[in-house]
Amino acid sequence: MANRNTLPLYKKVWLKHTFSRAVDSLIFLLLLMLLGYRVFSYDHYSFPWFVAFLCESWFTLTWLTTISTKWTPAKTITHLDRLLLREGELPQVDVFVTTADPVLEPPIITVNTVLSLLALDYPANKLACYVSDDGCSPLTYYALVEATKFAKLWVPFCKKYNVQVRAPFRYFSEEATIEKSEFPEFEQESLKMKEEYGQLSSKIQNASQELNPCPVVGEYEIFSKRQLRNYPTIIKVIWENKEGLSDGVPHLIYISREKRPQHPHHYKAGAMNVLTRVSGLMTNAPYILNVDCDMYVNNPKIALHALCILLDSKGEKEVAFVQCPQRFYDTVKDDAYGNQLVALPMYIGGGFAGLQGIIYAGTNCFHRRKVIYGLSPDHDTRTAKKDFGFTDETISEKKTMQIFGASKGFVESANHALEETTFTPNDKPFKSLDLEAASQVATCDYEYNTAWGKQVGWLYGSTSEDVLTGLVMHTKGWRSEVCSPDPMAFMGCSPQDNLGQMAQHKRWSSESAWRIFGSQIGPYVLSLKYPMPFSLPTASLPMPVSCLIRSAEPGMWFPISAFVMYNVGTLSEHLISGLSARTWWNNQRMGRITTMTSCFFGFFDILLKRLKISDTVFEITKKDQPSSNNENVGRFLFNESPIFVPGTTILLIQLTALVTALWGWQQVENDGAYGLGEVFCSAYVVLCYLPLLKGLVGKGKYGIPLSTIYKAMLLALFFVQLCRSTITK
Ligand SMILES: O=c1ccn([C@@H]2O[C@H](COP(=O)(O)OP(=O)(O)O[C@H]3O[C@H](CO)[C@@H](O)[C@H](O)[C@H]3O)[C@@H](O)[C@H]2O)c(=O)[nH]1
Ligand SMILES: [Mn+2]
């Protein structure tokens, strides 16, 4: 009989997307033929020829990278039963939640996430939950304190009745069907919980409406001293599972790190590093789960699933992190703003398995602590510890301080973390609650002249710290895996309107552009293997031009067939994923729109930053609980932001072209044929830009501001003039 410790805890199943592969390859072939055609059509060499050639080459290149990413998709299957055989030896897990703004991220949302984490199906004495509050908000703190009282009822209730959805606001929402239970007292208790939760949310609601939300006495006094971005560290142990009960409520710790105006705080990456150090001093678990404040646990067994991969005898040597997909609840119908990321992760995300594994998405991810500290997979711990200065008596202290900072306690904990052996029996539960030592590692100058943000922890210098941090792990040789059990592991809020969606895309694409002009070339050379998501912003350049190039030549059959194939391919991918055709169309449409708005701007953002004209800022995405009477649903909102100028310009140009063509005002002396193909191209772009077209005539927040329209008109005129002069020459 095989030793129970050697049985694999997960397996990887390679999927065959034969249809998808065939369509994708055919498109690639067509693109190559088109390029060939261009090259050999000597007599047409001209400025438009050159632009068209450039764009088509770019498309071909990005398409090649897309197929190579999608080529070998896989999924992982975990063997929970095998892991549960070793239940007594499960390792500790530290859970990090980040929140940053009590207005954009209402505390009730954070509270629900925290409650769902505290109620995870995992021994409570092996869990600790750390909440980082970058807003230093007494309201968030108050909400967590109140939530803990409720947790003492909620956690046992969930475990007793094996409740599926452990975020109360979802559990009690009308849609969630409350599971029938064989226990007669269930209904009664469920009602009681509902009442208790109602009280909790109204307490938080009331506190948020008061001008001075919380008393400035007692434990809240410390918050009264704070000023905007200028306050000391506040760390509070809200709840300690003192007796180490495995069926109790896990530890809950609140952390608001020190901030001073003259010190950069590095946004989320900075917060994650503080969480890493404080938890290192307190529980020092070998595994870390991190979630954004809106990502509640939707599958209470998720920690067990992820650990199957991390503890597997092969996974242990190879896998740095386990990423669960990001899904969203109460989404806008048919994905009107194209931000729910359902088909994309399935086809592209799954494909990463054929490479070194999925990229780190910043949330819903389980990490190994020692990897966060910079360990490589092939490094045996001894040499690593020597490199870090742990073993060499003479240099040790100086060296470790240069890497991990001046806290002796933390250095010692890092020393232990590097030795992470699987299944450390839980002999020393809560190491110490030395708040003073913990406060020291949360100060804003702790990281000066250390490796934090450079070689250790979450890396700085980018607004998508996640992608960068994950890629650097891959460059060291680690792999990563997707864990996507049923039901979906986590669910979060997605932007409820196009403005939120655009801000988010701008941040993501500016991050990708960053790597193109990047200072740290290393990881990005690797990212050539991960080209798909990174070609996102660069698509913003050729895209607009290519929208404008129309050809009436025989060669136009190549792009036409490629276009048809592409649409057939993506539509079938959506339908197979169980999505509606309308969703597909919305995704296509938003793809065209975001390229010309957020991606375009993300690109310039980074140019400005590179030229040291501006600084990267992490704009937090607004998280609201969607209300049923949201009048904006599915409609486009506009504001004064220049982000709408390029899109409006494209729309105006295409409209002009369309009108000229249809009314037959086209001058014959150009090249005569203003064919069906051209009209079709213009019509297609206008169709994609329909929301902007509505914006041209809309009023108030539904209308594009006049100033934006004027700017776009000027640009459009300029462009049309330019084309005329080159064509008539
Ligand atoms: O100074 C800051 C700014 C943000 N956050 C937190 O970072 C998280 C993500 O911010 P959010 O505004 O929700 O960004 P999204 O665009 O929704 O986030 C996606 O993209 C980010 C990178 O761009 C990743 O970090 C996230 O995990 C990923 O969900 C939230 O919990 C914030 O509270 C901080 O802790 N401190
Ligand atoms: Mn988010």
What's the rounded overall pLDDT mean?
82
State the end-to-end CA separation: 83 Å
Helical element count? 28
Report the radius of gyration as a whole number of Å.
Answer: 28 Å
| Low-pLDDT windows of residues | 422-430, 519-552, 668-673
Counted beta strands: 13
- Structural class designation: alpha/beta
* Total discrete domains: 3
Strand order of the largest sheet: 5-6-4-3-7-11-9-12
Largest sheet: 8 strands, mixed
Portion in beta strands: 5-15%
Topology:
Blueprint: E1 10-14, H1 18-40, H2 47-70, E2 74-78, H3 80-84, E3 93-99, H4 107-118, E4 127-133, H5 138-160, H6 168-171, H7 186-209, H8 221-224, E5 234-239, E6 251-256, H9 267-282, E7 287-292, E8 296-297, H10 302-311, H11 315-318, E9 319-323, E10 327-328, H12 343-351, E11 365-368, H13 369-372, H14 381-387, H15 396-404, H16 408-418, H17 435-440, H18 465-475, E12 479-482, E13 490-492, H19 498-516, H20 521-526, H21 531-534, H22 542-548, H23 557-576, H24 581-610, H25 645-662, H26 676-688, H27 690-697, H28 706-728
Parallel strand pairs: 3-4, 3-7, 4-6, 9-12, 10-13
Antiparallel strand pairs: 1-2, 5-6, 7-11, 8-13, 9-11
Helix pairs in contact: 1-2, 1-23, 2-12, 2-22, 4-5, 5-7, 9-16, 19-24, 23-24, 24-25, 25-26, 25-28
Manganese (II) ion is lined by residues 292, 294, 492, 621.
